[in-house]
Design goal:
5 helices, 170 residues, Ferritin, mainly alpha
Length: 170
């Protein structure tokens, strides 16, 4: 069975939509739990707003290709994000592990949007290519921010955890 370029593009856009649903849940969970790392919290909340916009943009691409978002994939992504958040809550170093996981997830998104751009270009879908390129830049910016701030988050955690009476976890 042969799958044409547009079918693959549509399937991958549905995957990207589910990925953004997962990102939304992860960002909300992290931002809601962080109390002692205001710069990290603010950046997560800012990227959450970008993520909500990305969901709408990807969904518009899906609809333009006469598709609809996959409810099963979206629900699975949300459940996965919930499980990840719940698992992280039990870790004494949750803020550091969450920041590392966030950086890794941003790089997954970068890879996915890079592939989507190539597929959209191959399909001759300049609107999807434009949208995915814009989203890619947002993901690259968040990835760079996370990488640049990991040392600070780590240092702040270590200082807080070594100081009696200071909460360090989140």
């Amino acid at each position: 069975m042969t799958t044409d370029v547009n079918e693959n593009l549509l399937a991958w856009l549905k995957d990207a939509h589910a990925m953004e649903q997962q990102a939304e849940q992860m960002l909300k969970a992290q931002a809601n739990r962080i109390d002692h790392y205001p710069e990290l919290k603010a950046r997560l909340e800012s990227h959450l707003q970008e993520t909500l916009g990305q969901q709408q943009q990807v969904e518009a691409c899906i609809k333009r290709l006469n598709g609809s978002a996959s409810l099963l994939k979206d629900m699975t992504a949300r459940m996965t994000a919930f499980a990840q958040a719940a698992g992280g809550m039990t870790q004494h170093d949750e803020v550091v592990k969450g920041a590392i996981a966030g950086y890794v997830f941003e790089n997954l998104e970068i890879a996915c949007y890079t592939s989507l751009i190539a597929a959209a270009r191959e399909a001759g879908d300049s609107e999807t290519e434009r949208i995915c390129s814009a989203i890619l830049e947002q993901e690259k910016a968040m990835s760079s921010w996370m990488l640049n701030h990991l040392p600070t988050v780590t240092r702040d955690f270590l200082v807080r955890s070594a100081t009696p009476g200071q909460a360090a976890k989140v």
